[in-house]
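Render this sequence as a predicted structure.
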Amino acid sequence: MRKFDRVLKLLIAVSPVALPLILVGCSMMPDYHRPATPVSDRWPDSVKQPNAKQPLSASQSAVDKTQPDKTHSGWKNYFPDVRLQVLIAAALENNRDLRIATTRIDEARALYGIQHADFSPTINLNASSTTSRTSQTVFNFGNNQILRRNDLNVGFVSYELDFWGRVRSLNAFAKASYLATEEAQRAFLFSLVADVANTYLSLVELRERTELTRSTVSARAESKNLISRRRELGVSGELDYLQAEGSYQSALAELANLERQQAAAENLLTLLVGQSIAAIKDLPVGRSLSEQGITPAMLAELPAETLLQRPDVIAAEQRLIAANANIGAARAAFFPRIALTGNIGVASRDLGGLFDSGSSAWSFQPIISLPLFSGGRGTANVNLAEARKVIAIAEYEKTIQLAFREVADLLNASETLTRQLTAQAANAVAQKQRLRLVEARFSAGVANYLEVLDAQREAYSAEQGEVQVRRSWLSVATQLFKALAGNNGVSAEKVVR
């Protein structure tokens, strides 16, 4: 506001004639300063990752795209499953939401181009021919007057001299809005890649659990038939048979539930990819969950300062820059607007005389518009622009805070799920060994069937749990790609390729 107040005092102190000469090139737009980073400069102590505690540099530009890619060359390196790579590529080609987001970029770019065009005058080539008849009773002529005029000229229309930076402020606003839209599209690109990967991995998980459940159904069907024969021989009672039947039917119910979830996951993947999966030619065979080869450690080693390069953070800062520019446009509205209109060409009564000697014609019309009274609209517009800037600052800071929390949670989850997966895998091995021993004891007549059922349930639960925990770990790894991939040098162009 200090700069604005000085200019207002200058407007009162100097004459209207000297004022334009003094204020040429002046801008009412406040100088932009990035707000201080509202988070810690280090990852939380709970995040036990190598090289994670790097200082967060508030001075680093969030829009600096010149940093070399030293950590990661794109989603194809991060997701090595070839089947998944084909599906991601198809989604980037066919996804309808991505088409909408891309078209938004074209729309914002066009709006920026329209606003930027105000820096240059609009020049038109005009040709006209006029014939008019004037009644003799108007000017007491002896007869009616017929007038003819032909014009050919080049002129510019209402070109504004941007003394106080109004046009420049609006141009800066349009540019920042365009860049914010572009970053939003980049964020959507990474989100789409992560969503396709997550859905694909969910489908792989459900298929593995379905196959495990089918094997369990088959094993329990054999157990039920065995108990049925033993019952007929009088070796087993009705209670053993009912327990075997209940266990078999429970497995059938779980199989139907998993098949339903698998169909839903396939439909979601089709929606994300934008076409039927079956229609994709030469689709490679995919990997199992344990063979995915995803290594989030490459992202975990990134310094915390990479948060400033997340697309959503950059977009929030661009919206802040746009709000800052809008203040300059609102302030400039208090000052006179000077527009120039003019043309130069030839005029003649007859078409054949347009280029005769003495047919040249020109006009020049400067227009100065000084707001005198608007009922406080100008002041209200400035106050509105400043309030929106305060909101934009808070939104920018909140975006960084949410990003910091998201990444910290994911890094911590990755580390704890690694330990959980190790324990769950060991539990699955132990439960399968226990089941084999109990089945051998039952065959020898040492153990009852209730022990077998309990061992079957525990082994099945442990194997299902291992698949689910592995899937959870891969989900966290995928979310880390979404949360950090836009900040490690991976550009939108690399994502598209």
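Summary. The domain at 25-120+163-218+267-335+376-496 is CATH 1.20.1600.10 (Outer membrane efflux proteins (OEP)). Residues 81 and 424 are 24 Å apart (CA to CA).
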